[in-house]
Amino acid sequence: MTKTLRLRIVSPDAVVFDGKVRSVQFMGIDGSYGILANHAPLMTATLPGVLKLELEEGKREELVVTDGFAEMRDNLLTFVCEAGERAKDIDVARAREAEKRARDLLANRAALAAEDVLKAEDALRRAMVRQLVGQRSGASVDL
Q: Is residue 130 assigned to a domain?
């Protein structure tokens, strides 16, 4: 029995990851998923956040992903999302600026339309997750 599965993470702009892994963890709309080789067929909508994987050689890696869906079939986990970013590619300073912009918008919440409040809250969550993953990966951070 094989100990790895193929993980393919795609967005409209790029193939974010394509390779063999030992395991994958992510959030689905109905809870947390842990996927190992030879997992039963599965399809689920996913939530934005951190996707954790263990590479074939045992190294662990984190990615930031937006909402989308995941399908497991024939030992291939395909994860389709609007955007995805590997920890090593995250610009922590840019994420910090995005957080500041979102917080500034939310400081004037009463003046915003409900839709704009939701967009600002989503932007804030994305910025905070990107910072967390980028910092955990060892990216330099100027405080």
A: yes
